[in-house]
């Protein structure tokens, strides 16, 4: 589909600049330069346009972040007004400003439990690094600096700073740029479809939670600072744990007095039909990270919500906490995040995802491709889903290594006006929360068509 802004010379010009000077994240830049990056020019609602005039349905909400959709004037105006009033000031020099203080209150108004204090950062990775330093420092304040082991999971994604990389469980990342941060341990992921064999979800949930207890006992309960996990693993392929998993994890953390940290960078701000994924999955963390949906991706901002136990320790302690960023609580990003949370409340978006569009999307997706020959399993909740592509539905046998089914499928999606991400052989979806019923229908039609094309390509 073409529109008036299409211009092939824009494509060539931007691609040339890009190839000459831009190094892309998580990309083989040399290979990309040869083929030329797709140039995105503008966006509205749930759609993007590229410089060739193609209209693309954004099934990933950018990178899991544009929750309130593109082109929201409320967010644009909030940035504009704040730019004029106070474009920047820091919060280091015993100073504050209205946007950061108000945003802390807005976030605390939607966080569960006693997560009442907020520390600001600019990215999910920085928020994770903040949690890592904070939980270790918490135990130091308690006179137990040796409690510094952080336990996380295989196939977890917690960002790509050295802290986030070390904490995450992605082998491809661990192999580069090491050595990693010490005193991090990992346990298995709760991937029922892929790793449970004949076990029921319930049995597998218990087994995977028990792995935490075993690890705590192995390294010594008195050495463990915290357990960190995404409520639903996102970049690992959208892995929804068995329903009993997180309640068991919480019990184990309580039993051994291990702090429980939720990485809500993807699940936060409505993605699963609650403000935070931990509410959907049934646990209450001591501390949690958030980013992405906090500003619907309009400006970079992230935060750590800190429970009373931890915040009281820091607030009651004599020392400074020697941590923070030039742009912690940036006023313009904060103003946008305030406007975003207010817009979410005004539009009742949590209810829309929980009771209306989320169930509709999950059902439509299953109707469209649940029986497709390529599809082994679909899992998801709210507006996030992961689809396992397999060679054999009955045995769950994967494709051989020479068939990169995920990439083949992703390329068909790109060519057919849909952005869908591939994580190995899992296809993932995370559309803007404002998506309409008609747009969900269109999305599911496109998924079906692209799965058909993928099947043709590999047959
Ligand atoms: N944690 C999780 C769960 C994430 O999904 C991500 C990003 N996808 C991050 C942390 C890192 O966030 P950022 O890319 O903003 O540093």
Automatic annotation (TrEMBL):
Record Pfam families: Aminotran_3 (PF00202)
GO CC list: cytosol
Keywords, ordered alphabetically: Aminotransferase, Pyridoxal phosphate, Transferase
Keyword Membrane found: no
Gene Ontology terms for molecular function: pyridoxal phosphate binding; transaminase activity
InterPro entries: Aminotrans_3, Aminotrans_3_PPA_site, PyrdxlP-dep_Trfase, PyrdxlP-dep_Trfase_major, PyrdxlP-dep_Trfase_small
Cofactor: pyridoxal 5'-phosphate
PANTHER family: AMINOTRANSFERASE, AMINOTRANSFERASE CLASS-III
Family the UniProt entry places it in: Belongs to the class-III pyridoxal-phosphate-dependent aminotransferase family.
Descriptive protein name: Aspartate aminotransferase family protein
Organism this protein belongs to: Amphritea opalescens
Lineage of producing organism: Bacteria, Pseudomonadati, Pseudomonadota, Gammaproteobacteria, Oceanospirillales
